[in-house]
Amino acid sequence: MLDAICRMDKLSQTVYSVFQFQRLDEAEIERLRQHLYCPACAGKAYFRKASKDGKAACFGSRYHQLDCREFKPSASRQREEQDASEVNQLIVDSDALRIDFSKHASSHSTKAKTAATATGNRVSEPAAPMPQTAHSPITPPVKESTPTPSEASIPTPDKRIAREGLEKLLHSLLRGSELASSDLWVYTDDKYRWRAKNLFVNFSQASPTDNGAPRMYWGTISHTDKAMLWLNPADCKDVGIPIDGFKEELQQRFAIEHRRDLEGAGIILFGKCFWNKEKTRKIIQLWNRDISRMQISLAEEG
Known about the structure:
alpha+beta
């Protein structure tokens, strides 16, 4: 997109071309970028800065209406729509869902390996997905307390328990599947289960939980800080995701080279939400800093 609407409130809005917007000073860009929308369909938009390797600054959106003139169908968009359809069918056909955190994202594995080869780094092969009938115990987190949902039970063999990785679940949520409002039981390991509507929480609805109980938080990334130590979700100004403890591992896994790669990206993570000391900002911390419990889906250019 070459233009975007900046709407600070219902009464005032400004149309910026990408050339005008990128000329604003850094502080003004950071202030306005959470309020960008597609000028044609009003879908939430993001801004990407120009990169050092020659990529131009641009506006983009993951939320175009299908009939929007700015919408450019792509293979990744079609895959996301298909994932949403399949998850909706899964909700109908299954008694429960087991999240397979060992299932790596197919869309990033090849790219990550290529990037690592170019830099001389070695990327471990993805762990083989667990068999459909297996329920292997998961080692409990070392640095976190054990999740304590009120809804806990051991799955019974006769139940139809589907198994799916984070990539498809994230895509389905971004494309409006019914997962976040479903009563489907979702297992995060062999022991703990949650109603999907209580487990999946959009960043804009995030709030600290009792006893630090974890949730699956999801949405899109607006931008990062200059040092790329924090991820700032879109649609909310008071939420931050610290990544300083596993930044390099995250960059390698998702083939992230620059800050701009994360602008507009979809993200889902299993973590806990709590206030900072001043109670001015909510922090969502990845559970045990285990990046297998985080999925990032990079946005396309434009």
